[in-house]
Write a structure and sequence with these properties.
This protein is an all-alpha fold and about 375 residues long. It has three domains: about 45-120, Tetratricopeptide repeat domain (Serine Threonine Protein Phosphatase 5, Tetratricopeptide repeat, Alpha Horseshoe), CATH 1.25.40; about 145-210; about 210-295 and about 325-360, no CATH class. Helices cover about 75% and strands about 0% of the residues. It is elongated, with a radius of gyration of 35 Å. About 30% of the residues are buried.
């Protein structure tokens, strides 16, 4: 009986398995064949002298690069990203590696090589999800390198990109306007700034948009107006001087109006920048009037008296500048802003305050 059991059980098992396998095998044969592609793998005989790894693929390199970058070791992360670029150019990690490599290079102050990393994406990987961010970062690096023409061209390509988000479009227009300003193409720059403001005002009612780019565009337009103010001359004879002074004052008011519009957007940094520039406008007008030519028919003594009287009359401009700087500092305190503009305003306020006190200090009593 025991012999039967030991012989019949395996036989039944074999028959049952065979009966069950045939339909499964037939079903499998009806499915189309699939091709499975694995990422290339580097297999070495000894650890790589730079990476310290013997076997690695793109995923391993990228994971280690990200770990080091997040730990603040960009210098250590770069070899891992660069090895993906050089050894695994077809990898799905190529775009991310090029972008993160560019960020590390920026942090290390190497903008020129960062441009090359971002260009791997903007020139070759046009379908990458990193393309827009890479274009913005590449243009920023180009601006730092004073390669304004290349930056303007890249930003134009960005603006031509279909389905670009509204916020990205506004940012790109403002940045392109700044690049064009550096190139001296002021009309095109002004058009870019105004275009950004039109889009912002049209869409701000339908969705939330960061006001900082709009404030920045308004500030840049005001700076263009300020430059026109600075270039306006003051000339003799007296009638010409009066007309020139009136024209210069109008230009000052145009620039001031632009800076006030900047402040109304409510962005603390650009508001403090605008406040500083308004104060500077009054200082520049005061300086221009001080340096204006004096009438040629005055004697040396009369010229000295004329300049003294002029200085006392134009001191009102110093008082206006001082008031604006004080208001800028009050705004900075309320918004807890501490930036280059607030620091500059603080220094100018001290300097102008000392000048005003000098001009209006009490005169010594005359001797009997």
């Amino acid at each position: 009986m025991s012999v039967f059991r030991t012989s019949i059980v395996p036989l039944l098992a074999t028959l049952m398995l065979g009966a069950g396998c045939a339909p499964v095998e037939q079903a499998r044969r009806k499915q189309p064949a699939r091709e499975i592609i694995l990422d290339p793998l580097h297999i070495g005989l000894r650890p790589d002298h730079e990476l310290g790894l013997t076997d690695f693929d793109a995923a391993t390199l990228f994971k280690e690069g990200v770990r080091l970058q997040q730990a603040g070791d960009c210098k250590g992360a770069l070899p891992f990203y660069d090895r993906i670029i050089s050894e695994f150019p077809e990898s799905r990690y190529l775009s991310a590696a090029a972008f993160d490599s560019g960020r590390c290079l920026e942090d290390l102050g190497n903008n020129a090589v960062a441009v090359e990393r971002y260009a791997l994406i903007t020139a070759k990987l046009t379908a990458s999800k990193d393309w827009v961010d890479a274009a913005f970062r590449q243009s920023a690096c180009l601006e730092r390198l004073s390669r304004h023409g290349e930056a303007a061209e890249l930003l134009a390509r960005l603006l031509d990109r279909p389905k670009l988000a509204i916020s990205d479009r506004i940012d790109a227009m403002v940045l392109r306007g700044e690049a064009l300003t550096e190139l001296g193409e002021l009309n095109a720059a002004e058009s870019a700034f105004r275009g950004a403001l039109r889009i912002f005002k049209r869409r701000a009612h339908d969705e939330y948009l960061d006001p900082a780019p709009a404030a920045r565009a308004e500030f840049r337009l005001a700076r263009l107006a300020e430059q026109r103010f600075d270039r306006a001359p003051l000339r003799l004879p007296e009638e010409q001087m009066r007309a020139d002074l009136e024209a210069k004052a109008e230009l000052l008011l145009d620039a001031q109006a632009g800076y006030l519009r900047t402040i109304r957007y409510g962005d603390p940094e650009w508001a403090s920048a605008a406040g500083f520039r308004i104060g500077t406008l009054y200082l520049h007008l005061h300086q221009a009037m001080e340096q204006a030519p004096t009438p040629a028919d005055l004697s040396e003594e009369e010229t000295a008296v004329y300049k003294e009287m002029l200085e006392r009359k134009t001191a009102v401009l110093l008082r206006k500048a001082l008031k604006v700087f004080e208001m800028t500092m009050e705004l900075a305190e309320r918004t807890r802003s501490d930036n280059e503009w607030t620091r500059a305003a603080r220094e100018e306020m001290k300097r102008v305050e000392a000048r005003v006190l000098t001009l209006f200090e009490p005169l010594p009593d005359s001797e009997p």
